[in-house]
Design brief:
Layout: E1 8-18, E2 26-30, E3 35-41, E4 44-50, E5 58-65, E6 68-74, H1 80-86, E7 97-106, E8 109-124, E9 135-150
Antiparallel strand pairs: 1-2, 1-7, 3-6, 4-5, 6-9, 7-8, 8-9
């Protein structure tokens, strides 16, 4: 019987610097210190049609995706990934572009690697009550179709 509750481990990294080559070669920093939650969303674009031979039943096609990763936790000053993202708070356009790498493990076995160009949005790196830990969050929005490699 298959294991229905595998011990999944997700390792996410963000491109913190890139070469000037085309395409750019990124240096990644782990996005894990202080991070409590990573929530992926594919954000599918669907087209629905009702054909006569379907007798009233719908025919659905997924015609596009806009994947994103909502990242949240607490601010860790001195962490390369968080410092890079926090430093973009008031940046626009190309300055918000990066690359992300997500590695998904079942126990210690790498199952899938996702690499994608992304835009970093919705940056929060300060605020809250006097007794709260400093919040940190951002959304990594994929540009184009990610490269997915399975082991």
């Amino acid at each position: 019987m298959p294991n229905l509750n595998p011990e999944w481990v997700i390792k996410m990294s963000i491109g913190t610097s890139a070469t000037s080559a085309t395409p750019a070669v990124w240096t990644y920093s782990p996005l894990c210190a202080g991070i409590e939650s990573i929530t992926p969303s594919v954000n599918e674009q669907n087209q629905q049609a009702f054909y006569m031979c379907g007798l009233g039943g719908a025919n659905n096609e997924v015609t596009g995706i806009a994947p994103e990763y909502a990242v949240s936790g607490h601010r860790v000053i001195g962490d390369a990934a968080q410092d890079y993202i926090a430093g973009l708070r008031y940046s626009l356009g190309q300055d918000r572009k990066s690359s992300l790498k997500v590695e998904i493990y079942d126990h210690e076995t790498l199952v899938e690697t996702i690499i994608a160009d992304c835009t970093i949005t919705d940056i929060v790196d300060f605020g809250g009550a006097a007794t709260d830990l400093v919040p940190f969050s951002c959304t990594l929005r994929v540009n184009g179709i990610p490269t997915v490699t399975t082991a």
